[in-house]
Amino acid sequence: MRYRGAVLATALLATPLAAAAQPVSGLYVGAGLGADLPQNVRATPGAPSIGGAGHLKLEEHLGFDGIGAVGYGLGNGMRFEIQGDFARTGINELARTPFPASSSGTVHTYGVMVNALFDMDIGVPWLYPYLGVGAGYQWTHLDGLSVTQAGGPFRLGSNDTRGNPAGQLIAGVSMPIASVPGLSATAEYRFMDILGGEKFDALEVPTGGGGAVSTQLKLHSQYNNIFLVGLRYAFNTPPPPTPATAPMAQAAPAPAPSRSYLVFFDWDKATLTDRARQIIKEAADNSTRVQYTRIEVNGYTDTSGTPQYNMGLSIRRADAVAGALVTDGVPKSAISIQGFGETHLLVPTGAGVREPQNRRVEIIIR
User: Fold this and answer.
1) What is the pLDDT of residue 6?
2) Which of 114, 173, 131 is nearest to 6 (CA)?
3) Residues 118-149: tens digit of each pLDDT
4) How is domain 3-234 classified at the architecture level of CATH?
């Protein structure tokens, strides 16, 4: 498997959707369980009695695979993780021996991988595909491998462990679980290549009789097709917004006209520009000249990104403006903060549009 070409292909597939990435921001954990479908492994014997057969073929049964991962999302679709994994498959036979033989035993593989993944937003709010690549190290344990000649004295046995570098390609989908913010179900396919060259110690009883002698069995690249279902939990996911409750009506004189100020932000930012600080200072100064009941600070975003991410971004923008108002002398107790995400657009647009006038915070003095 040419991993350089595979990495390039993965990047090209992700590029058209990069601007609409579904972000995981901060720490997350994940786990999966499923089936491991190994391809037949080419094997080179060191045993004199079967060495003349050339390359043999180690055939394995369908097995199971389990993984656990800890990762960190950058908030722009990219995330990186460390994966631990374990797989077990049964040995069907060591084929192509020069004489009929029966085989038994199991193959255990386990190791650590470092993965880079990219999540994509395809416009379906309950389905987010992702692609990834990984590299690491895997150990293979031949557990009770036994090859016995039918009706003859030859026997080959191994119970050894060897390790080698490994690489993998990942393609999957995540499905957010609405009732638990941050929790997603996942389904994925992984192609793992454990590079070949491991030489496992073995014992052989030759066909000519005599005692057991030490030998080796060399395995070439191990290709594994892995199918997993699992769960992923992102810790830094804001809860869904609670609907605002209407204030109780009460008899009161007609309120004075409210005053509002607009503070605009750069794309995907919650930091204040110099112009934004001037507007906030003007609003704070004017609040001291009028009698007011409260000061509302409402945050908004444009439609790029996902609704869940935009809700958190709008709250961070409102928090930044409220903090500047307090610095400029407005009592913190007089300020109410709300985030409305990509709702209540100042300039109506479709989904995924970076409209500067929609990236704003509105200060309303009532």
Assistant:
1) 46
2) 131
3) 999 888 888 999 999 999 999 999 999 998 88
4) Beta Barrel (2.40)
